[in-house]
Amino acid sequence: MRRPSILVVEDDAILADSLLTRLTLEGMAPIRAADCAEALAALEGRGFDAVVSDIRLPDGSGEEVFRSHRARRAAIPTIFTTAFADVEQAVRLVKLGAVDYLTKPYDLGALVDLLTRVTRAAGEARPSAPAVVAVSPAMARLTAALDRLAESDRNLLLTGAAGVGKKTLARRIHDRSARAGAPFVVVEGAGLAATVGDRVLFGAVGGDGVPEPGLAAQAGAGTLLVAEIADIAPEMQARLSRFVEDHVYRPVGGTREEIFAGRLMATATAGAETPPGPRADLVDRFGVLAIRVPALAERVEDLLPLAEAMLADESAAAGSVPKVFARDAVAALEAHDWPGNLRELRNRIVRAHLLAAGETIAAIDLFPERPPAGERAGLELDAARRDAERQVIEAALAENGGRIVETAKTLGISRVTLWSKMKRFGIAKE
């Protein structure tokens, strides 16, 4: 049986050695990278089943590695390890697509268990939840329009907030078109850099005359989707315009032009189509047909059906008894404003399914960064008590001209206790 390959990005040599030893004993194949540069080189050189990455690294941030690699290739399940001060950043990374985060010092057993579940789920064939849920009027109108556009060969631009499912909808259009039997090829805009974009997209002809097909040739008569055109290098945007307009390109080193026989689609995050995003003419050429995808907050009727479909998908992938949402989880789902849209919803459900102890998903499983209502109320009461105590001490100090002995007598406490409270509340000794 193949051992799961794990990339460990950790600059602390002692911690890294301990982690590599434990993962090896658990039947995994870990490889260490000590900084961002080594991590990116390792990710370029081979495939991994999962990544465990520190957020703070000597030459940058684990977030930079995560974003850079995700822009060029399919996402690898990533678990971040972080100091308490970086928890807010870690939560943001989970919304962007990371599996989970662990706060240092973390339990190696918990990490091993999480990695085992993640790699097992990734290695199994995963049945797909319904690609599109259209209970809401907004999505019903959109899907009807997209089904009509599937019959066209015109260039299409899908816009909307990050995580709304633009790629999923592009795939739906392809699958419902006459091109469904041909390839559906996705190229990330960030991968079309000024120096390599032509070779990636248009291919090349070597010195021996042997062609190296680019993504345009690989798409053939199917669909080529350029994801996030705002991320394309400006120089490449200029060279891309004619290809988008005329469907003609020339491979690097080639002497003749090739005709692209497929359909072109593109996506752009809302607002990115204005400067300093793509050139206006590139947007116009891609946007012969332009469709805006609504945010999840605009289609609240779809939220629960989507969440239930995703949860069923996770249970099926894990081969476990289907899990269900508890009543407080449903209330939490409906109360959240979902700034990360479908991507955030999927990430939270995947994490909750992995970590929930029983067959029921509770609100705390979906939103671990939020304390339960009773605990939250207790925290608020403690804060109110501290604020009231601080105000009483400040008033007594003012009344006694800042004199400690007199103030302590007024409050009925010792001088030592008063000094201690002043230090805790940040009250100046003056």
Write the layout of secondary structure elements.
Layout: E1 5-9, H1 13-25, E2 29-33, H2 36-45, E3 50-54, E4 56-57, E5 60-61, H3 62-72, E6 78-82, H4 87-96, E7 100-103, H5 108-123, H6 137-149, E8 156-160, H7 166-175, E9 184-188, H8 197-202, E10 204-205, E11 211-212, H9 215-219, E12 223-227, H10 234-246, E13 248-249, E14 258-259, E15 263-269, H11 280-286, E16 289-292, H12 303-318, E17 324-325, H13 327-335, H14 341-355, E18 360-361, H15 363-366, H16 373-399, H17 404-411, H18 415-425
Parallel strand pairs: 1-2, 1-3, 3-6, 6-7, 8-15, 8-16, 9-12, 12-15, 17-18
Antiparallel strand pairs: 4-5, 10-11, 13-14
Helix pairs in contact: 2-3, 10-11, 12-14, 16-17, 17-18
Structure, described:
This protein has 430 residues and is of the alpha/beta class. The chain is built from 18 helices and 18 strands. The chain has helices spanning 13-25, 36-45, 62-72, 87-96, 108-123, 137-149, 166-175, 197-202, 215-219, 234-246, 280-286, 303-318, 327-335, 341-355, 363-366, 373-399, 404-411, 415-425, and strands at 5-9, 29-33, 50-54, 56-57, 60-61, 78-82, 100-103, 156-160, 184-188, 204-205, 211-212, 223-227, 248-249, 258-259, 263-269, 289-292, 324-325, 360-361. Strands 2-1-3-6-7 form a five-stranded parallel β-sheet, sandwiched between helices. A five-stranded parallel β-sheet has the order 9-12-15-8-16. Strands 4-5 form a two-stranded antiparallel ribbon. Helix 10 runs parallel beside helix 11. The longest helix has 27 residues, at 373-399. The chain is elongated and about 95 Å long. The protein starts with a strand and ends in a 5-residue tail after the last helix. Residues 124-130 have low confidence and may be disordered.
